[in-house]
Amino acid sequence: MPYIVINPELCKECELCIKYCPYDCIKIGDEINSKGYRFAIFVNPEKCPGCALCAMMCPEMAIEVYK
Ligand code: SF4
Ligand code: SF4
């Protein structure tokens, strides 16, 4: 099953990955990283086909996709 891994320390809470994910598999979580950002988290994993749009859109290269 495809999945993504988001590096919390690289995330700057820009929400681009959330905007571009076609399956609502990413949201901003409640925790805060060391830079003070609420970082993105992977949700609804059963819906993710591993399209990698999120990783392509992330300006911080914080997302890795595994298929
Ligand atoms: S790989 Fe595609 S479906 Fe999965 S979280 Fe990223 S944008 Fe969403
Ligand atoms: S696109 Fe990258 S930096 Fe922006 S919210 Fe998503 S994981 Fe964080």
Describe the structure.
With 67 residues, the chain is α+β, with helices and mostly antiparallel strands. The protein has a single domain, classed as Alpha-Beta Plaits, CATH 3.30.70. It has two helices and four strands. The strands form two sheets. Strands 1-4 form a two-stranded antiparallel ribbon. Strands 2-3 form a two-stranded antiparallel ribbon. The chain is globular and about 30 Å long. It starts with a strand and ends with a strand. Bound molecules: iron/sulfur cluster (2 copies).
SSE map:
Elements: E1 3-6, H1 16-20, E2 26-32, E3 38-42, H2 53-57, E4 63-66
Antiparallel strand pairs: 1-4, 2-3
The structure holds iron/sulfur cluster (2 copies).
CATH architectural arrangement: 2-Layer Sandwich
What count of structural domains?
1
Shape: globular
User: What strand order characterises the main sheet?
Assistant: 1-4
Quickly name the level 1 CATH class: Alpha Beta
Structural class designation? alpha+beta
- How helical, in percent, are the residues? 10-25%
In whole angstroms, how far apart are the ends?
A: 7 Å
What amount of the residues lies in strands? 25-35%
Largest sheet: 2 strands, antiparallel
**What is the element string, with H for helices and E for strands?**
EHEEHE
Tell me the number of helical segments per DSSP (H or I, 4 or more residues long): 2
What is the radius of gyration computed over CA atoms, rounded to a whole number of angstroms? Answer: 11 Å
- Overall pLDDT: 98
List all distinct small molecules, including ions and cofactors, that are bound in this structure: iron/sulfur cluster
Contiguous uncertain segments of 5+ residues: none
CATH topology tier name = Alpha-Beta Plaits
The total beta strand count reads 4
